[in-house]
Amino acid sequence: MAVDIKGRLSEYFVSIIPVDKEKIISLLEKPSNPGFGDYAIPCFEMAKEKKKRPDELAKELSSRFEGNEIIVRAEARGAYLNLFINRSYFTGEVVKEISRKGFLGLSKKGKNKTVVMDYSSPNIAKPFGIGHLRSTVIGNSLKKIFSFLGYRVIGINHIGDWGTQFGKLITAFKKWGNDDSLKHDPINYLYDLYVQFHRESEKDPSLEDVAREWFNLLEKKDSEATLIWKKFRDLSIEEFRRIYHRLGVEFEHYTGESFYSDMLDSTVEKVQASKITEVSEDALIVPLDDMPPAMLRKKDGSTLYLTRDIAAVLYRKERYNFDLALYVVGSPQMLHFRQLFKVLEKMGIKWGSQCHHIPFGQIRFEDQSMSTRKGNIIFLEEVMDKAVGLASKIIDEKSPHIDNKMDVAEAVGVGSIIFNDLRNSRIKDITFNWNEVLNFNGETGVYLQYTHARISSLLEKYSQKAGGVSYDDSLQFGEEGYDIAILLNDFEDTILKSAQDFEPSIIARYLLELASAFNTFYNAHRVITEDEGISRTRALVVLCVQKVLKTGLELLGIKVVEEM
Known about the structure:
Layout lengths: L4 H12 L4 H7 L11 E4 L1 H7 L3 H9 L8 E7 L2 E6 L1 H15 L12 E5 L14 H16 L3 E5 L7 H13 L2 H6 L1 H18 L2 H14 L3 H25 L16 H10 L4 E3 L2 E4 L7 E4 L7 H16 L3 E5 L5 H13 L8 E4 L4 E3 L14 H19 L6 H18 L7 E3 L1 H4 L7 H22 L15 H8 L1 H11 L3 H20 L7 H24 L9
Parallel strand pairs: 4-5, 4-9, 9-10, 11-12
Antiparallel strand pairs: 1-3, 2-3, 6-7, 7-8
């Protein structure tokens, strides 16, 4: 676990002055001016209790502190008691904790708890567009964060494999398609057929009726319709798995909308049994107080996306008995999830409060729209290929000698795309800018990977000279590593905060701050010196930075590299 600096300060404080420890912890704050100390305690409340002036009490208290391993000195500044802590001591304590134990304490936070995560969810028979990138990488990072905290995490890819669009695709395939072209390039071919259907249906609207009939047959489990649909689904999932492999993403289940089709009648019956439904214009709805009604069945008897989501969450609770159910789905679907959770509440389901929508903003790519209907979708793989190609050129220029250049370029290029998505608050829209994404000096994944590689090289040189780097209690740390040590000590709280807020950007921003602090330290202090004691302590600080950077990048779903 992290070093409890405030806890240790408060323990020493209460050993001198009889006051509640938790009260002191709540009062401890960092002065705005570093020259005023490392921590400060406002004396207003304590002075009121003791019937003294705050400045008088602060001065009295400062005289009772003597320098020790925790506090070097205390000074009164107006109504504040300013504490100057033993920076060398705390640097050593943080380094000892991280270098020896790592972050094992965090793995118990989610013990015996289960998180079900619904994310990515592309549509079958369509190329993986960049529009699905955000759900995929945010969901993947949250999955890694909760797994790191000891939760059992079930990743579900709720793929879009049901609905009237598949009637359209079957119609297009029957009318214009052939098996040879399908086998040669299945996803792009199906996508072209889908675009062709919409182009032709504008000229001949009767095609829409044919498509509805094919989907009706599919719902009735017609053998021909089912066989064609299953072929489309299997080919699509095979393609998705290849893309996910490049992104370092894995799912426990690919259970899309079709998986729940046999549960829809019983689901509607369960909702009706709670006596919250009514019929409106021949449609079955659930009236909701503060939002539009939730429709369960249309007047023609067909179900909706909401019906299938109700079936899915009931199934998931029964199957996995989750403690948290997370839906990583874009912000345009906020109303949908409000309706879903409200229906659960009206049904009297108490565990509905365990369900959370994790919304996110859109991604804009050089001002191009992303419409699958009109055929100008931006393919994610094309973006990844371009990033890897650009990374390869940069590596050729900067480090032509390194081994496995293509593996490094793949990690750097794909990692740059992931980090570009995760560095900002998820609710914000993102504009994709190539000049920013692959900048070695900007707030980028490349900058972090380069910093990690730089540290790896430095530690390798130190190990060659000293035979390795390890902690022992005889080491005396200097003050120069204190700023980094304090940041390192914040890592565990950063992970917990990221999980609490479902916000990977908290880790991403932290890593940028840590990398900046390391580079400042590295530029000001030589690590490998003639003094073995100084070299070893500085190398240990650097080793801890490497551990945190590596762990943090992996929690974001980014592969680290040892050289670049």
